[in-house]
Amino acid sequence: MKAVICARYGPPEVLRVAEVPKPVPGRGEILIRVRATAVTASDCIMRRGKARFPMWLLMRAMIGFKRPRKTLGGVISGEIESVGKGVARFKAGDAVFGITGLAFGTYAEYACLKESTRFACLAAKPGNATHEEAAAVPYGGLLALCFLKPAKISARRKVLVYGASGAIGTAAVQLARHFGAEVTGVCGTANLELVRSLGAARILDYTKQDSVPAGELYDLVFDAVGRRKSSKIKLACQNALAPGGISVTVDDRIAKLDAESLELLRTLMEAGQYRAVIDRRYPLEEIVAAHRYVEEGHKKGNVVVTVG
Questions:
Q1: Rounded CA gap, 236 and 190, in Å?
Q2: Chain segment 11-61, per-residue pLDDT in tens
Q3: In a domain, 264, yes or no
């Protein structure tokens, strides 16, 4: 089968497509024919092999100290080709989507995963979504829920999302609206209409504005970008909290993804209350170009890779 090989840590050019043996599912495992995956900011960090300590040590321990031991890629949408003994939830022919966790392996024509693991979650693919659309949902959607739910999003009336046009941000805007919040999105000029179309009642342009409107206070400020990017308006947003309001960033802790959240995303998609945001699509053979584009840091929503 075709798979993306990463011979060493480094720039996008360390990736190449090669022929590797097709995996065989063992007990409790499922073999998925990958139809689509996505290139995420996390994938780029894994490929570079660089992170702040102690995350650097944890990352290298997971995937290899000198070079990645595993095929990269953590988002999946595809069909189950076969299952090993003891598999109960899925059967051959099922269309599924989700996150593979520490197994990685989705930059390939086939991925072999354990049916049950604390670091991965799979669910039936939304019936009204293509594989490309399904692959554009788990990363941003699950990460957004991972931070919004502990922040008691259902009790937050006014929510501001900084970085509202990225994979996590576009998900957070839609999910905050679902939970009943009035959403203000912060993004660049080119993405104002996109964020508005996702349900944001107000948009702030970080390229032109240095502060929030006078008197505006928020019950929750969610930084969907993290500390790697900052601006004057970002600092102003974090200080514009209503009494009892909180500020949350994606850098606060290691995300814990769960099947319940994935099921919620599936349900919302099938109900037409959540949509996949896809910036660009690349075939597997153009994985280097896909990584280059994501690494530029200006993508809108998700970058999807079609596999087969």
A1: 22
A2: 999 999 999 999 999 999 999 999 999 999 999 998 998 766 556 566 667
A3: no
Q: Kindly state whether residue 266 falls inside one of the protein's structural domains.
A: no
Based on the domain organization, do 88 and 167 belong to the same domain?
A: no
Joined together, the tokens standing for residue 101 give: 């966790």
Beta strands in the chain (DSSP E): 2-6, 15-19, 29-39, 75-83, 95-99, 110-114, 121-124, 158-162, 182-187, 202-205, 218-223, 241-249, 278-283, 302-306
Instruction: Over range 276-295, report the average pLDDT.
Output: 98
Whether the bond into 54 is cis, omega within 30 of 0? yes
Please check whether residue 208 lies inside any domain of the structure: yes
Residues 159 and 131 in one domain: no
Closest C-alpha to 199, from 168, 225, 175, 166:
175
Token pair in block for residue 286: 């153009």
Q: What are the distances in angstroms from CA 273 to CA 39, 199, 267, 300?
A: 24, 10, 9, 19
% residues pLDDT > 90 (the chain): 82
Q: In which band, very low, low, confident or very high, does the pLDDT at 101 lie, cut at 50, 70 and 90?
A: confident
Residues 67 and 190 grouped into a single domain: no
Query: What sign results for the dihedral spanned by CA atoms 28, 34, 39, 40?
Result: negative
Q: What is the pTM of this model?
A: 0.94
**Domain hosting residue 108, numbered range:** 2-137+276-306
The amino acid present at 5, given as its one-letter code, is I
Q: What CATH number has the domain bearing residue 232?
A: 3.40.50.720
* Residue 69 falls inside a structural domain: yes
